[in-house]
Amino acid sequence: MKKLEDKQFYYIVTWDEAAYMTKALHAMEIPHTIESPGNKLEINEGELAIVFPNVPMQKYVEIRELFGFDGMRYPH
Question: What pTM was estimated for this model as a whole?
Answer without folding.
Answer: 0.90
